[in-house]
Amino acid sequence: MTHNENYLTKSIDRAAEKVGSVWPLHSFVTANPLSGFEDQPFHQAVAEAEQLFGGRGYPHPSVFREAWERGQIDAAVLATELDTHGIDEDPETLLDEMATAESAPTETDSATDTLDRILSKWLSAFLDHGNATWSMPDRERGFYAAWREIAPYDSEISNCDSPSDIPETPIAALEDVLSDYPEGEWETIFEQQLAALPGWTGFIKQQTTDDADPWQSKYPISLVDYLAVRLLLADFLDVPIEPDEHATEPVENDDVPLPEIWLTAWEKTHRDRLIARVTQPTEETSSSDETARPAAQLVFCIDTRSEIIRRHIEAVGPYETHGYAGFFGVPMRYQAYDADVAVDACPPILDAQHRITDRPTTDADAKQDRHDRWQDVLDAGQKVLKSLKTNTATAFSFVEKTGPGYGAALTARTLLPARVYDLLYDADRAPREHEFCEPSIDYNPDSVNSLREGLTLEEKVEYAQDAFELMGWEEFARLVVFTGHTSQTTNNPFDSSLDCGACAGNPGGPNARVLATICNDDDVTAELRERGFDIPADTVFLAAEHNTTTDEITLFDVEVPASHQEDIEQLREDLTQAQTRATAERTESMTDEAADSVRETQRRAADWAETRPEWGLAGNASFVIGPRELTEDEALDGRTFLHSYDWQTDPDGEALEAILTGPLVVTQWINNQYYFATVDNAVYGSGSKVTQNPVGNIGVFQGNGGDLMTGLPLQSLYADADQAHHQPLRLTALIHAPVEQVTEILHQHEQLVQLLDNGWIQLTVIDPEQDNKPLHYQKNLEWKPVESTQPSVEPPAQAVSSEVAD
Q1: Which whole number is the average pLDDT over 601-628?
Q2: Among 173, 184, 205, CA closest to 5
Q3: Of 662, 665, 708, whose CA–CA distance to 685 is shortest?
Q4: What is the mean pLDDT of residues 536-555?
C-alpha cells in the first residue's frame, strides 16, 4: 500500500465515524443515528449533526407546548431547571420565543441534487438484494470496477465516452480529483461528501463490517469505491466538492440551549413519577403466597411490548414472568430449515459465536413431507408468478387472465382482512418448521463453515448459568418457558423492525428454542446442580414465541411427560385469556372502538392496506433493572424495558455489569432512534409509508430516488398527521442495586460513563442498602439524592401533537 493509499483510506475511515450504520430492511436494526457523536455532550452533538445532516435535534416547540398543557412537564420541575440556568421568564413566554426562533428550511443546490440522484441510481442497481430481474453486470468485480465499465452508457454523465476516460482504480480516481486540494483538506471533503447521503453511506459502512453478509462477499463495495464514484461524478457534472464554510465551522457552545432545558424537565417529570410508582410499598402477601411454587415461569424479552402481556399473564394464574434480553444470551448465527442463508440472531454489538441450524427430528417424516410438498407448491407458484409479471412477452396476457382473481384477492384483503387471516393462519395447513425440527446444538468439530457448529457442554452450561444468574433465580417452577417474540404484518417494508431488536431484527423464537434445548439436557442440568442451582427433577423447559401484533403466544416443542400435560393445557387456556386482556388494552390506543380486540389485531395483521399493524416500541422511555416486585403491581403502559435482576444473588456485580454493558447500550440505541425519528422524521426517519418506494430489499426511498431513508416511518410514531404517539424523551434507566456497586462497574467502563456524562442516558439507582433511596447520577461518577414528591399517576403518553419537519 502506497503512502497516498494508506492516507486516503485512513482519512475516509475517520470521516465516516460521524455517520451511523444502517442495516437492510430484512434485518432492520434500531440504532442511534447519531452514534458517531456520543463522545460529545448531547446539545453539542445535535448542533453538529444539524450542521452536517441538516436535521433538528429537539422536539418542535409545539410538542413542548402540548406536553406542558397536558401536565406531562411538571411546573415545579421546570421552574427548578430554568432557575438552575439563570432563566426567569415564564413558560408561556419561553414557548413563544422558541417558536419564533425556528429557522426556515435550507434551500438545496440543484446541481448537488442531480449528483445525488445519479449516484443513488447506480447504488440501488449495484446493491440490489435479489429483487431486480435484470441485475447490474460485473457486480462480482466490485462497485467501482462495475460502474466504470458501463458509466459511459449513462446519458446523464457528460464528457465520459469510454471506460478509458475513467481512472482504472478508485485510489487513482481519488488522487486525480483531489490533486488540486491540499491533503489537509481531504478528510473534511470526505466527511461532507459522506454526509450528503448518510443513508447510503451508513448502509455501505455496515456492509463492510458484516463478515456474514453473503451479498457483500459476492458483490463487494467499500467507502473508497463509493467516494471515488461520487467525486468522479461531481467532476463530470461540474459540481463543486469544497465544503460550505458554514458547514465546517466548529461547534463550540457550552451553554445548554432552551429546548434542552425543557426536554430535561420533561424527562425528570417522567423519572420522578416512575420512581414514585416503583418504590411504593406493596401490599403484604400471606405466608402461603410467599412460599407457593409458581405453576410456570415465563421469560420474555425486555422489549417494552412484553410489559403489557406479562402483567396480564400474572393476573390470570399463579405465574411468574421475568425479563431477559431476547436473544437469551446465545450469540448465534441461525439458519432455518428451508432458509437459503443464515442470519445473526444476536445484538449488533456482539459477534455471533455459534452456527445453529434446524434439523428434522428422527420421527419427522410425515410432517416434513407435508411441509416440503406445500412449500414446493408455493415456491413454484411464486416463481411462475414473478416470471409472468416481469416478462414483457407475457405481461399483458397475464394481467388480462388473472386480473379478476387479483381484484378479488385485493378486495378480500381490503374488506374482509380478518377472514383472510383465518384462511392463511387458522386453517389446517402444512406443519411449521418447529413442529418437525429441532435446533442442532451439539458441537461439531468438523464444521466447514466460518463459524463452528453447535456448542460444547461447557458452553451450554455457561449460557444456562448466565441466564439464571442475570435474572437472580433461586427457584424453578414445573414449567419454565423461554418466550421469544415476533410480529405479523402484511405489505410492510418495515416488518422486521417489529421483530426482536435483541436478535438484530429477527424473530426470537429460535433463540428461545436453543436455550430450552440446552436446559433440558440432562448433562447440563446435572452440572448446574453441582454449581448450586437447585433445579427440581420435575422442571421442564419449553420454548415459545409471542406474536406482538396479536399477543398470541405459541408454545414450541411441547412433547412433555404425561405428568405435565394438564399443566400445559391450563397454561394454554390462561395464555389465551391473557391475550384477550392484553389486546383490549393495546387496541385502545390504535382504534376508536373494537368490540373484539383479538379480532381487531388479527385484522391489522392481515390487512394489506394497514399502515399501522402495531405500535412497536413507540412510547419507550425507561429501563428498569431489578426484581419484578418493583413493578408487578403497576401498569406501565408498554413504555418500559424490564430486565429481571436480584442484587442479593450477585455479590460481585458480574451479572449487573453484563446488563449495563449489553442490554442498556442496546436500549439506548432503540430509544434514540425513536427519539430522532420523531423530532425530525424527514432526516432521521423515513416519511410516510404511503409514499415510500422500497428499493432492492435493502431500504426505501421517498419518491423514485435520492438517499436511502434510515429510520422509522411516520406511522410507527404518529397517531395521525400531526399527533405524535411517541414522546421524544431520552432513556431513563432505574437500577435496583447498591450505588457503590454501580459506581464500581461504571468506573471500569469508559463508554458507559461517556453516555451518562454526555446526557444520552439518564440514570437513577434505587439503593436497597439505603432503604430504597433513589440517587440520580450527575457527572464524573457522582450521585445526588432525588427529592421529589411527584404523584404516581402520569398523564397519557399518547396524542402529543407535533409539527412534522419539512
Answers
A1: 94
A2: 173
A3: 708
A4: 97
Q: By the 8 A CB rule, do 501 and 326 touch? A: yes
Cell numbers 417558536 label which residue?
99
Q: What is the pLDDT of residues 404-434, one digit of tens each?
A: 555 555 555 565 566 666 655 554 456 677 7
Q: Is 469 helix (H, G, I), strand (E, B) or coil?
A: helix
Three-state SS at 643: strand
Per-residue pLDDT tens for 458-479?
999 999 999 999 999 999 999 9
| CA atoms of 724 and 716, how far apart (whole Å) | 10
* CB distance 636 to 306 below 8 Å: no
CB 229, CB 49: distance < 8 Å: no
Half-sphere exposure at residue 38, Cβ-oriented, CA atoms within 13 angstroms: 22
Helix axes 522-530, 457-471, angle to 10 degrees: 60
How sure is the predictor about 111, in pLDDT bands with cuts at 50, 70 and 90? confident
- In angstroms, the Cα distances linking 321 to 309, 466, 561, 581, 727 are 10, 18, 23, 16, 27
Residue 424: DSSP 8-state? I
**DSSP code, position 791:** -
Phi, psi of 157 (to 5 degrees): -100, 115
534 near 542, Cβ under 8 Å? no
Element (H, E) at 479: strand 479-486
SS3 content of the chain, % helix, strand, coil (to 5): 50, 15, 40
Distance CA 443, CA 316 (A): 41
Integer angstrom CA distances of residue 27 from 348, 501, 547: 11, 9, 17
Are 510 and 484 a contacting pair, CB within 8 Å?
Answer: yes
The sheet with strand 540-547 has its strands ordered as 319-324, 296-301, 479-486, 540-547, 553-556
Q: Please give the Cα distance from 551 to 545 (Å, whole number).
A: 10
In this structure, are strands 553-556 and 723-724 parallel, antiparallel, or unpaired? unpaired
Amino acid at the residue 314? E
State mean pLDDT over 685-714: 92
The pTM is what?
Answer: 0.92
Rounded Cα–Cα distance for residues 456 and 33 (Å)? 38
Least confidently predicted of 258-267, 401-410, 512-521, 544-553: 401-410
- Are the C-beta atoms of 781 and 743 separated by less than 8 Å? yes
User: What are the residues facing 777 on neighbouring strands?
Assistant: 783
Phi/psi at 489 (5° precision): -160, 160
CA distance 262 to 72: 11
* Torsion of the alpha carbons at 94, 98, 100 and 101, rounded to the nearest 10: 130
The 10s digit of each residue's pLDDT in 138-172 is 999 999 999 999 999 999 998 888 999 999 999 99
> Which burial class, exposed, middle or buried, applies to 50 when counting CB atoms under 10 A from its CB (0-12, 13-18, 19+)?
middle
User: What number is the average pLDDT over the span 494-505?
Assistant: 91
Give the C-alpha distances (Å, rounded to integers) separating 69 from 73, 329, 745, 789: 8, 43, 40, 20
Position 197, amino acid:
L
DSSP letters for 43-56: HHHHHHHHHHH---
Chain segment 45-89, per-residue pLDDT in tens = 999 999 999 999 999 999 999 999 999 999 999 999 999 999 999
What are the grid coordinates assigned to 521, written together?
A: 439436557
Q: Residues for the chain: how many in total?
A: 806
List, in order, residues 6 or more apart from 112 with CB less than 8 Å away: 196, 239
Q: Report how far residue 316's alpha carbon sits from residue 245's, in angstroms, rounded to the nearest whole number.
A: 64
Looking at residue 798, its pLDDT comes to 55
